[in-house]
Design a protein that fits this description.
The protein has ten helices and ten strands. It is α/β, with parallel strands linked by helices.
Length: 250
């Protein structure tokens, strides 16, 4: 299922996501691509920032970051992290792209927001708004297995997990618009910890849109075989591949 920009992220999912970030190599891998190419850039706009996966390390690297996200839950979790870490150079804006007027920034960044990345309108507007560079991050494998869905969909929904669009759709839009961007492919881990099996079941039910208990035993049987026991509970190991599509303004 495709995540919608509005209404997908509740506080439960937001808190799971921030916990998973502690086991994710995405920020480190992405910033290795972004920072060397933005040495002369001071201000960043992170569109669809979520809870600050990239905004916080960018701020820690000395950049001034504006985050834009329509999810109140994600912005709240980000604000908690900013306060906890005493970060002064992040400004949070709880709004969707297009709902408010945004000032130009040196760099515009958008990661894993398909309804924007697959929009010619967004790409053209973002290209006009960025002074120096743009970075778009998206999955690089249309057949990737998200959250073990390839095994779970036949068990729970009696159908195969469908393939999804990846960065090639975004790159085609750019190419057709006369923007010939660079591409860097990164591989990274994005693991998800749980206190116990019951919490893991609730995680999958939330993400798969299951509201009843009829599939609980099937989920438990499946997840017991997948989750790794660690000192403080369980962890789901995920490997991901993403494309960082970027270009500098002339």
């Amino acid at each position: 299922m495709e995540e919608k920009q509005k209404g997908f992220w509740n506080i439960l999912k937001a808190r799971w996501y921030i916990r998973g970030l502690k086991y994710s190599a995405l920020p480190e891998k992405a910033l290795k691509i972004i920072l060397p190419r933005t040495r002369d850039c001071k201000t960043f706009l992170d569109v669809g920032s979520g809870c600050g996966a990239l905004a916080i390390p960018l701020a820690n690297a000395g950049k001034i970051v504006t985050v834009l996200d329509p999810s109140r839950a994600m912005i709240s979790v980000l604000q908690e992290e900013v306060k906890k870490k005493n970060i002064k150079n992040i400004r949070t804006v709880n709004a969707a792209w297009g709902d408010i007027k945004i000032k130009p920034h040196d760099v515009i960044l958008c990661a894993n927001v398909p309804e924007l990345l697959h929009s010619e309108t967004f790409i053209k507007e973002a290209d006009k708004l960025a002074r120096k560079a743009l970075f778009l991050i998206e999955g690089a494998d249309p057949n990737a297995d998200k959250f073990y869905y390839k095994g779970l969909y036949p068990i729970i929904f009696n159908k195969e997990f469908p393939s999804r669009n990846d960065y090639l759709k975004t790159y085609t839009i750019l190419h057709n618009s006369g923007i010939f961007a660079n591409i860097d492919i990164i591989d990274y881990s994005f693991d998800q910890p749980f206190d116990n099996l019951n919490e893991a079941v609730e995680f999958w039910k939330e993400y798969m849109g299951i509201v009843t208990e009829e599939h609980d035993e099937k989920l438990k049987t499946f997840l017991i075989q997948k989750l790794e026991k660690v000192r403080h509970g369980l962890i789901a190991r995920f490997k991901k591949k993403s494309a960082i599509v970027w270009w500098k303004k002339k």
